[in-house]
Every structure is written in structure tokens, then in C-alpha cells.
């Protein structure tokens, strides 16, 4: 009966990769005992955005096998690394950037990292905004200090299941850093290469606004999987977001998608929706995936001020739901790219959508 179950599973496609689970090697276990089929599917990311669909289709396919009366579906996950790993032990580096400040880029980066970690991924977060670091405060670790191990490598601080580094944990509180480009370049190099990040599925990097030294240092010294652009809907933000996209294009960094932050506001007393900054403006940036539209909510700001990512503090809020959706869609985009590389030699080429 196991052969019949495997045959049934070969009719179930991964919705993003458009190939069946069997040929993709995603069926880790298929056992049948007394009419009860137990299936374990090894996903390409623990933050798979379509896990529910896969589970439903696996159940339907296996229940059609004669003699099968019940189906249990279990999931595991193995994040496939990029063709050229970014850093030792780090499978993917994802840059979160914007063309200007004030669009909520750091808040998005923190919540992306926390959401991926909550789904079971091993996640690091690098605050590369050296002049205006805010990640430590948003993670509730503003007073913590970075230490070193026996090999004199910096040990990331851990909070909310995420390992992170920020200049805020290395310099005295409130002290301004007055550095020229070479010092900045050296600091970024130490953050990425002289830190004991350990084994990570994703290293999320919160970039400073603009298109300056930090962006150049990272793209020249680290193999980056891709970038996420954060913008608000109004034209003044979109103009600068387009410049950030152009910078990544010139640096040969794929843009994985766009996050439209503060996309709309729902009045808590009336439920009426207001497009304070306009809405849907991110679609003007070109043919890039829209990873999500995140509403403007006071709770996101309050959670950040209290050092708690909104996706963990208030997971049922509209903003948290949108941010979790962004994280899972992003993880799916990364999986598609990694699997495309793995399947490049197969006869039917994978079409990235």
C-alpha cells in the first residue's frame, strides 16, 4: 500500500515550486498501518506561507487510496542555502532597505525576524544603521552589552528567539558616532564576519536610509540573497524607494519584494478606513512582488517602545497578521530561488513567479 500512497503523493504539487512533492524529495516519511497513513512532509522553510494548502491536498490525495481510512500529516522543514552561502553557517542574508527614513523600516525588519523565528527558523538580525541604531530598543535589550567568546568574536545578544547585534549595545547610550566612511566600512565588516552568528537560516539586515557607505560595504563583501524595500504609499517616499531599488540593481542584488507600510488606518471607534498617506502607491515601483500592506496602528509603536515585536505581543492585530504574512511570503520567495538553483539541471525548468 505504501507504493500506492507514494503514487498518490506524486500528484500533489508544491504551490510555489510547481513540482510534485515526491520528485522534490519533500516526502520524508510515508507509513501505512491498519488503514492509517502517516505522512511527514519536509518543507523548504518553516515559515511556508502555503502549509495549510499542502496539508489539505496531501490528505485528499492519500484518502483516495483504497484501504486508507485516516491520514496524519506532520511537517518538518529544511531551509535550502543559496548557491553561494553568504557567511559560514548562514544560509541567506536579506537586506531590509528604504530610500528615506521615517517609513518604519526598522520596525518591519524587527517583526520580520521575530516572525520567522516564531515559525521555527534560526534567525539573526543585524542593525546596520550605525548612526541611528534602534533595533536594540525594539528588542527590549537597550541596556545589554555585547561580549566576546574565547576566539574574540562578538557574541550576538538573544531576545524573542532572535540573535542580534546593534551598535547601541557597543557604544555609550546617547553618544553620537562621528565616523567617516572607512571606519563605517570596518565596523560593518566586523559585524558580519567577526561575530559568532552560529547556524542561521536567515540573517536579516536593517539598513540605514539612503544609498550610502553601509549599503555598498554589505553588497561588496557579503553574498546577499536579496533585498526587501519598505515604503509608505505617498509619492515622496516612492521616489526615494525607487532610488534604493536602482542601487540594488546596480549592485546585482535581487529585489525580493516591496512592503507598503502605514498603508491605511482603521479608526478603532468607527471602524472606518482612512488612506492617510494614500494607498497602493507601492505598485508604481515596477514589477516587484508586493509582500504585504501593513496598516498604521498605534499598537505597533507602543510595542516597539516597550521592546516587544508586535507579531509576538499582539499577534491577532491587523498589523501583526500583515507582518506575519510578509515574513512567510518572503520566506516563500527565498525558497523558490533556492529550489530554482537546485532544479536548474532538470529537464523541465522551474518558472519563478
Automatic annotation (TrEMBL):
It comes from the Bacteria. Residues 2-73 form the MIP18 family-like domain. Keywords: ATP-binding, Hydrolase, Iron, Iron-sulfur, Metal-binding, Nucleotide-binding. One of its GO terms (molecular function) is metal ion binding. ATP binds at residues 99-106. One of its GO terms (biological process) is iron-sulfur cluster assembly. Pfam families: FeS_assembly_P, ParA. SUPFAM superfamilies: Fe-S cluster assembly (FSCA) domain-like, P-loop containing nucleoside triphosphate hydrolases. In the C-terminal section; belongs to the Mrp/NBP35 ATP-binding proteins family. Homodimer. This is Iron-sulfur cluster carrier protein.
